[in-house]
What does this fold into?
Amino acid sequence: MPETTSPEKVRIRITVNDVAHDLLVEPRTLLADLLRGDLELTGTHVGCEQGVCGACTVLVDGAATRSCLVFAAQLDGTAVRTVESLAGADGTLHPIQQAFHENHGLQCGFCTPGMLMGACELLERTAEPDPDEVREALGGNLCRCTGYQNIVRSVCAAGQSMTAAKNGAQA
Amino acid sequence: MSTVEDRPTTATTGSPRKNGTERRWIGRSVPRKEDPKLLAGRATYVGDVTLPGMLHGAVLGSPHAHARIVSIDTSAAEAIPGVKAVLTGAQAAELVNPMPAFCAEPVPQTAIAIERVRYPGEAVAIVAATDRYIAEDACAAIRVEYEVLPAVVDPEAAMAPDATRIHETLDSNVAFHRVLDFGDVEGDLARAHTVVRTRARWHRMCASPMETAGAVASWNPFDKSMTVYSNSNFHNFLPWAFAGMLGVSTNRMRMIPCAVGGSFGSKHFITKVLAIAGALTKATGKPVQYLEDRVDNIAANDNVGCDRIYDAELALAEDGEMLGLTLKIVDDYGAYFQFAHGQHGNAMAQPTGPYRIGSLRYDVSCVLTNKVQQGFFRGAGADPGNFVLERLVDKASEVMGIDRAEIRRRNFIAPEQFPFKTPSGNVYDSGDYAAVLDRALELAGIDDWRAEQERLRAEGRYLGIGLATCQERTGYNASEWWFLYDNPPLPATSTPESVKMDVDAMGGVRVEVGCPLWGNSPETVVSQVVAEEFGIDPNDVSVTYADSTTGAMSAGPGGSRLTIMLSGATRGAARTIRDKMIRIAAHAMEIDPDDVECVDGTFRAKGVPGASMSMADIGMRAHLFFHSTPEDESSGLVAVHTYDHPYSTPPSADRTDMGAFYPMVSHACHIPIVEVDAETGVVTLRAYYAVNDCGTVMNPTLVEGQIVGGIVQGIGAALMEEYRYGEDGALDTPTFREYLMPSMHEVPEIVVEHLETPSPFTEYGVKGAGEGGRLVAPTAIASAVDDALKPFGVWVDELPMTPERVVDLVAGAHEGRP
Amino acid sequence: MKPAAFAYLAPHDLDEALDQLAEHGADARVLAGGQSLVRLMNARLASPAVVVDINRVGGLDALSLVNGSGPARLRLGATVRQRTSELSPEVAAHAPLLAEAGAHVAHAPVRSRGTVVGSVAFADPSAELPTALLALDGRVVARSRSGERTIEADDFFTGPFTTSLAPGELVVAVEVPVTAAGTGTAFVEVSRRHGDLPVCGVAATVTRGDDGSVAATRIALCGAGERPVRARAAEDALTGSDGGADAVAAAAARAADGLSPIADCHGSADFRRHLARVLTGRALRTAIHRAAGEADNA
It folds into this structure.
């Protein structure tokens, strides 16, 4: 049998969570599958593969992006950040994760990585968002467990704690 | 025949909670132990499982609702490099057995259709390949010739004797029909002053957890064993049923639970994914992962809730006393009957709600059509029941001119009437419904909202205030799946839950639970109970999940049972170990065991300061120093405790009494505030108030999370969620672009409060709380829309209230339609 | 749900892109933001043999005011993101309708990849941006190896997801005339859920004459036909009127004349006609207010 008739693979150099990769990818490989498969970063979850649910949201060059709607081949030269980049190797949670923990912003945890990455982008732009700003940024991320209220609270609280920490560090 | 006096024999009476004094950890918002791994993206869901050499499965689904499979040509698919197996239904049937079902009727079901497809999306062929992309290439290359048959879509039409038959093994599409009368129904109707009626429609919706169902199956052909990772909940409840389906002896089958990305009732059994992964691993000798994609999950899982047409009537005396209730129900079950009429067994727990309704007629027809089968979805059959009952109560209020809170108050079961035996036999444990209602009205600030309503009406805007007071039966008993049968296929069960606990030589407490992590909080609940019993910090308790080889018994989360059952099992195990530790400590301190108390994780001689032993002291002694322990004690500190359903009685033989099977009954009053755009039909939630009584609250933050999440699912049920089918039976809502669930934008601020009337039947007095939000919100929001559109005189009897339906209601009211 | 295999091409300049599109013709699909195309490919509703990714083509990401011959125009290149357009001061100043309609498209993360031109070229009959382009009397600039042409929005949309673009042609930009003082615009829609495609939406522009009467209006609807459509009967009814409540009501009543909406699970044809009338009234009222320079909610 012939080895393959599939089209030529594409070479990409991307940085994922600060690690540089030089990869040959099939053109049709979705970013979500590259992350979850070859790169073994299974924290990024796939919920609908239609861009509706937002579970697979990661940051591409800092922008919240549905990884089910992007081919890895498109990402040559970019930097990708996933949920695995947030917590420390010693188990220390990122302030956003800590806020989700303290405000019960998750139940089953499946939508959570997408929510966290969306929150990262928002808080980079808006240090202390109000609930409406959180809804505007994360409104396209579906959660079936929490009813959202505690997610909104978590993101607002994360903004406050991160700002306080920054001010404390400068003081 | 059972009576209220058939109480549990164990002394399990919960005492009223005095938080901070008698109890340290039960009732506190202990942060969730499950969180860190989930937050870090380090939990292992079934889609994250990778085994050496693992292949990936995909399914070719039927494009037709009803068709005969004339031929299947898999040759092109098999020729694709990377494809390792392509199986038709007939080929798969040589590897795995039909899917088990709980019905008495002969409704055979295989995971992959053989000869005939009966719903759109039903699997026709399955593929295993080296990756999912190639597996889907292969599906696309399979050629199937169909002979399209007439699709049976309308359940009422399906009941006609000459309707196209879904199953040739049955005489009719009515798989099950039964009329059950409890009390003097005819007499109550005859003596009624007023009878209000409704024809209500509750469409099918699906649980739609963010993670679909999946399994990784690995067959070892040499020792004939199979290992299965999955997100099923029944690995420690019905593993024998899975083994039978997969053709593996029960003692060579190992099922390993994964973290589960939500379920809401949809992943109890998931036999389809297990059969698909199982057939493919047997065909290839390699591990195979099959994870539904979203279309598979919506179109072809046991994910779908009730699909009912109600003709219902409520008979009332002149003063508004509710006398009798009749419910004539046609339920569209779809093409198969896996859980039989289980959703009606469930509804039988509380058909008369929180009211003293004396008689009940329950007339149910379960009808088969060319749609995906029903499974379970949060509410599990009691959800439309609450909808219809509360709509009737609102209608009675309107027709009889009695305020809707007042008519409820007049009919509530009073606190002194508990335990209360309902007409159909189930027993309610405790409650104070009027107190819940009063507090909800106060919390919502009803008078302010009425003023706001008046102000907005002057501007031509329509604000509505809803009200619903509903039951949430909790702590299910799986007998409900089959006990409506005269000759059930199975006897009554107690649906047990067990934990294994041990205290190690250094005093560390480990608990192994039989349930999976389904999005609930088993680790936190167990840790709180252990902390309560030993006086240690819940953070110091380690909780792990048992696979199916440990002998654990668990039906897991479902029917709002887990906290009740886990706290019972954990407390039992803790007491056993604590008592042994007390005996060892007493022996060591040379005092009577009655003089030893366990406080803050130490075992102290009562009244003797300084005389104490730590958990580690006793642990080391128990593990290693047999000769330093009492003579009749064996070494070690291990206990397995199985907590059977705290209070269930079998139904009477003639089914005039269904027995007590769902007796821990929570209650809630919800008051949603909506604004309706009468021109566009758009309903917007402005605020939401809920007062809930689920007995002793184990963990307020977590209970609130369950309630709020359920309310938002209820907002979906009220406004958005619906399976729609074309006349040809095509599913018009196969993705999240058509099957709509609420986003952050559709959700108002939700205020939840708790009152607590502990259950006398359970440990600590806890009741369940998992389904309460969704059991109440849909009917409460319907009430709010009615209230908003009162100037038009609309009557909501169909959900969801889509913009189009609302506009039609307003137009119908203009035209004088009923 | 995985896409079929395809060849991936990532041209670095426009000529290379046009050569590739010419070579592969109907076998190729252009990938810009990909927020619709990749979704279709995942579901295998689209399985192009070749995908031409234009994101690396220089010069297509310009958003600029063009003051050439004729009236000033705002020009958005093929890779201008929807989010960029929505937040752009130029767009806010010169084509506020585009920003207002754009804010209804999906959610911020989708809009930060999705492009304005991509939405127009995708020609979803329910989508907001094609409708806004139509209401603004905009045009599409298409380039192929044989040169450049402009296509009026009125002529561009030919059916559901189909346009008058020829194989080998690439939309390099869309252009809209600058919205002048005295012209008010508005976009309103009803969607089943925030961020979803509307069941029906209306984009309206109203220009008032010196005497306050309606000198010109364009009303475009989405979700109301097989393509973005103009409510010409309503336009005719309003034009020349005083723009008062009665005139708006009379125009709105004509908004569904001649429409043949596509029914789906979100709404029947009748309901869409109903919404077309209701929303046209609302859009016109707002646009007329704005044309008079009045603040919203005045």
Remarks:
- Chain C touches chain A at residues 1-8, 10, 31, 34-35, 38-39, 41-43, 51, 53, 55, 106-110, 112-113, 194-195 (CB under 8 Å).
- Chain C has three domains: 7-56, 63-177, 183-291.
- Residues 183-291 of chain C form a domain with the Enolase-like; domain 1 fold (CATH 3.30.390.50).
- The radius of gyration of chain C is 19 Å.
